[in-house]
Known about the structure:
Cytidine Deaminase, domain 2; 6 strands
Amino acid sequence: MQPLEAQQQVIDAAEALARTLGDNPNHTVAAAVMDLNGRVHQAVNVYHFNGGPCAELVALGVAATAGATQLLTIAAAGDRGRGLIPPCGRCRQVLLDQHPNILVVVPGGDGPVMRPIRELLPDSYFVGA
């Protein structure tokens, strides 16, 4: 599924923020997430040798701080021109647990592709199941 105009906003926001990261080794990935009201929330990762939080998880916190309860779309992009990147396994599990209907932008052969989080984590563990 190709991104719609609103979903493209999320992609553009993540890629734009990633371009500003420069050479700081502590912040190498940017993420953007859109809530039900159409607001886009942005964040960066916080690298640390003990596994600091990914940009996607920081973006969830930023959105929650702004009062967002339902998130529709999320995208992440790497610094230094790496472009869109798919979420790691930990982020996939958190997204599924907290926002089971979210669409995730992943890089595809012909450009960005929208995937429901359940497709990115088939046969997954469910909290409370």
